[in-house]
Amino acid sequence: MAKIRLFIDHPLAQGQGVALTPDQAHYLGSVMRQGPGDALLVFNGRDGEWLARIERLAKRGGDLVSLRQSAPQRNPPDLWLLFAPIKKARTDFIVEKAAEMGAARIVPVQTDHTNSERIRQDRLQAHAIEAAEQCGGTFVPEVAELTPLGRLLDGWDPARRILWADEALAGPAATLAALPRGPWAILIGPEGGWSESERARLGALAHVTRVSLGPRILRADTAAVASLALWQAALGDWG
Ligand code: SAH
């Protein structure tokens, strides 16, 4: 039984040849000790999961052929995660967990108290891909570039509601089941929390629902996972 799962940015169909990148060839050959004739599972985020066979493998490239679909494409509900990046390892953790928890899109936002001014979008995207490879998913959430919160709210489509986790509300946790279904975004603040001007702006928007995540103040990475779990259980695909 093939165990290796690889994300491949290439169309997949019966008998489709797939060229490997140097990184993928290195991973399969040198890291996983695979060779021609060996089987693996591949997915591209659109066409489901496919059983594939290695046709040729060299140091800097190689070819696969996709044989048959082994699982259908499964997309998460239309839920985005908006979060303020924190320290590198914890930001990596948030992206990995958001991909596992079924976020459809991940948007790092710059807030008044954001500790990090820069992110490596390509590294974060690679973490989302790795998470999908590990957890058996066929979908990879896109990681956006860092966007200032104000600009994000200026261009926001109010049809997508925002679930705003505000630590000032810490107390009995929100029950989300009564909220409307449809497109949502969860918004998690940085370790420094929300500023008063952010609270004023977010609090005035009709498409924003302010929620508590329970009586304890959670670190931002914990808050991201907890809110994704609450949302998936009440309004998403856990039910
Ligand atoms: N420095 C702040 C805590 C920030 S926690 C303080 O000491 O008050 C980081 C983020 O996690 C918050 O901005 C919020 O979005 C979320 N969060 C953590 N605990 C929460 C809670 N109990 N209820 C709602 N949101 C919470």
Q: How would you sum up this structure, described in words?
A:
The chain is α/β, with parallel strands linked by helices. It folds into two domains: 5-71, Ribosomal Protein L25, Chain P (Beta Barrel), CATH 2.40.240.20; 79-235, Alpha/beta knot, CATH 3.40.1280. It is built from six helices and twelve strands. The strands form two sheets. Strands 6, 7, 8, 9, 10, 11 and 12 form a seven-stranded parallel beta sheet that branches. A hairpin with a 2-residue loop joins strand 4 (49-58) and strand 5 (61-71). Helix 2 (88-100) packs across helix 3 (121-135) and helix 2 runs parallel beside helix 6. The longest helix is centred in the last third of the chain and has 16 residues, at 220-235. It is elongated, with a radius of gyration of 20 Å. The site of S-adenosyl-L-homocysteine has 19 residues, from helix 6.
Strand-helix topology:
Blueprint: E1 5-7, E2 17-20, H1 22-31, E3 39-43, E4 49-58, E5 61-71, E6 79-83, H2 88-100, E7 105-110, H3 121-135, E8 142-143, E9 147-148, H4 149-154, E10 161-165, E11 184-188, H5 196-203, E12 208-211, H6 220-235
Parallel strand pairs: 1-3, 6-7, 6-11, 7-8, 7-9, 10-11, 10-12
Antiparallel strand pairs: 2-5, 3-4, 4-5
Helix pairs in contact: 2-3, 2-6
The structure holds S-adenosyl-L-homocysteine (SAH).
The site of S-adenosyl-L-homocysteine has 19 residues, from helix 6.
